[in-house]
Write the structure tokens for this entry.
Amino acid sequence: MSIDVKMAWRNIGRNPRRTVLTISAIAFASLLLVFMLSLQFGSYDAMINASVKIHTGHLQVQAEGYQEKRDMRLVVENPQAVGRILERIPEVEAWSPRANGFSLVSSQNRTYGILVNGIDPEREARVSTLKSLVRKGAYLSEQDRNQALVGRLLAENLRVGLGDELTVLGQGRDGSIAASVVTVKGIFSSGMDDFDRSSIAIPLADFQDVYFMRGAAHEVVALGRNLADVQAIKGKVKVGISGIDQKPPLVALDWSEIMPGLLQAIQMDLVSGAIFYLILILVVAFSIMNTFLMAIFERTREFGVLMAIGTTPGRLTKLLLIESMSMTGVGIVIGIVLGCLLTLYYQSHGLDLAGSSEILEQFGISGRLHPRLSVLSALAGPAVVLIITFLAALWPALKVRGLRPVEAMTHV
């Protein structure tokens, strides 16, 4: 160990109270950043999983151009072939075909333009939370014909309830008129107003008959075992569907391409969170800068003596920076360790959101929020603390260069 490091550690121990307070402030900031970043990332996972399980899935296979145009004629000709590809991918938990058609739906008194979703009831229950979102009535079964699930807000707008009939009028895949009468079997509430206001679900077999789909679907929805597996699944699906010959060709889209609004909301939240964390770090940095300014003021005579016996200003600056970085390093290590332990505890047990839990559970989000510890969440915040505290300590350390030995030794 060099003489400068030994001197720095002895100087740190000269004022134990100030040293403990400084290290504690850095440790607390690091702990808070590790936990809050992990909690933020965990909340994003919960948001994404809840959103995709309501309707979109982690990934969809569609005909090229369908996502933008929503044209009835852009179909997946053989959804079962795509399903077999998905079944061979270990990371895929479940899949389900869907068909969609924009139509007019009428009750006795009102008519609205809505999206009719054709679903496979059994498979749909594995890839989405639609079954658990039914608040009145019952979910669809494989034997149902001419039955429908209706969004809560749409049911209110149409003034219909369980057992009421709805007339559906749209355009089939071949351009012909598609018409049917369905009975309301269940009313669902997802918490997403646009979805609850503008959609109904009917069995896929009925949809294919009414809209002349000839066995085709518009989407094959896949749900991964973990959100982290989505990109790996997408790569394998792309390779698999490249062997399916149809025009237009099939494409694989992940959740961020299907729901760009959700991705933008997460990015905006990250920016606002970063601003808050930066303010926290700056508060700690200013306290450290103030601590070192006070230390330099108290030790001015000492620095004058050292300079008088030949110590260069550069060496004094180096000594002060070693002191500041030593305290910062100790505080950051303590903060990271405690932050990781705290995060791992709540990652295992979950953070109870108390009064919000019942509301969140209605929308498919667990009443407990689980932070997600990662290398990024454990090191990103403390790394910024290290950089900013170094810059904050640099200015007081450089002030030593301006001292004159005679004036410094006579400083009171």
Q: What stands out?
A: The chain has a mean pLDDT of 85.
